[in-house]
Write a structure and sequence with these properties.
Helix content: 40-55%
Largest sheet: 4 strands, parallel
Number of strands: 12
Shape: globular
Bound molecules: 1,3-dihydroxyacetonephosphate, iron/sulfur cluster
Number of helices: 14
Radius of gyration: 19 Å
Distance between the termini: 42 Å
Order of helices and strands: HEHEHEHEHEHEHEHEHEHEHEHEHH
């Protein structure tokens, strides 16, 4: 069986397999650790293995490499990108910074190393509010690339950020009407959505949480049915960890094609052939690491 071969290869290579909550269920099951972006970054920063195989999208593997320049970081399919991360370039961010001298440049972790290198601080959806609370109120904030997460945190903080018009094409498929329909079909069930959703969708939900936050909510909630507005891969873990509860996707259309690119086949091949190593220019990596370290220190 492929899963057994993957575990044997991981032991042979002294490799740790990290998987994001949105990856295929069978990939999550074979991984050493499954989590949200923040949990995976923390894990990547402390892992002792020689090799990290990252099952997720490119910016996540890149973040693991930035945190561990001396380790081998492999991504089974290097074409697994994040369209939102690619919505802003380093040059575009430099232009924006020139228009707002003195502003604090903050990036969502869903960004390229080149963009992180231009930033003072990095955030994930799991810690954005806590991290942004450390930024002085009188300091102007540029937030890239996710306009929705930026708007969500700025609104909660009661201040205004300079936002870049980036968005997640997967979460953009969730509508307030889908939430209303799901509520009508499951009266009384709470609705949880990801902060990458648009404002009207976030407003229509009961909670706005990172995928790790959703796992905690599912554990702690007294509700027997929970309506989930995020990429459907998370449902695997929610159901596995809470077999007595019912989880209903608010929309079946929330599938991130890039998160599905890691399969047991290419994961096994990745370990067999040690491919594909993630490389980040050391100068860019060192600058990007400052923004990530500033986040991890909070
Ligand atoms: P989190 O797992 O941090 O909530 O991130 C969601 C996401 O879209 C990752 O690409
Ligand atoms: Fe990027 Fe959205 Fe896919 Fe996450 S779910 S990797 S933000 S496109």
């Amino acid at each position: 069986m492929l899963s057994a071969e993957i575990r044997a290869l991981a032991a042979e290579r002294k490799a740790v397999i990290l998987a994001h909550n949105y990856t295929r269920g069978e990939v999550q099951d074979v991984a050493d650790f499954t989590g949200d972006s923040l949990e995976l970054a923390r894990k990547a920063a402390t892992v002792e293995a020689d090799v990290i195989v990252f099952c997720g999208v490119y910016f996540m593997a890149e973040t693991a490499k930035i945190l561990n320049p001396s380790k081998t970081v492999l991504i089974p399919d290097p074409t697994a990108g994040c369209p939102m991360a690619d919505m802003i370039t380093g040059a575009q961010l430099r232009d924006l910074k020139a228009q707002h001298p003195g502003a604090m440049a903050v990036c969502y972790v869903n960004s390229t190393a080149e963009v992180k290198a231009e930033c003072d601080l990095c955030v994930t959806s799991g810690n954005a509010e806590k991290v942004m609370a450390t930024v002085p109120r009188d300091r102007e904030v540029i937030f890239v690339p996710d306009s929705h997460l930026g708007d969500h945190i700025a609104t909660r903080e009661g201040r205004t950020y300079v936002l870049w018009p980036g968005y997640c094409p997967t979460h953009a498929r969730l509508t307030a009407k889908a939430i209303a329909d799901a509520r009508a079909a499951h009266p009384g069930a709470p609705v949880i959505v990801h902060p990458e959703c648009a404002r009207d969708v976030r407003d229509a939900a009961d909670e706005r949480l990172s995928t790790g936050g959703m796992c905690r909510y599912a554990r702690e909630s007294a509700a027997s049915t929970i309506l989930v507005g995020t990429e459907v891969g998370l449902l695997h873990r929610l159901r596995q960890e809470n077999p007595e509860k019912t989880f209903v996707p608010v929309s079946e259309a929330l599938v991130c094609p890039n998160m599905k690119k890691t399969t047991l086949e290419n994961l096994a091949e990745s370990l067999r052939e040690m491919k594909t190593p993630v490389e980040v220019d050391p100068t860019v990596a060192a600058r990007a690491k400052r923004a990530i370290d500033a986040m991890l220190a909070i």
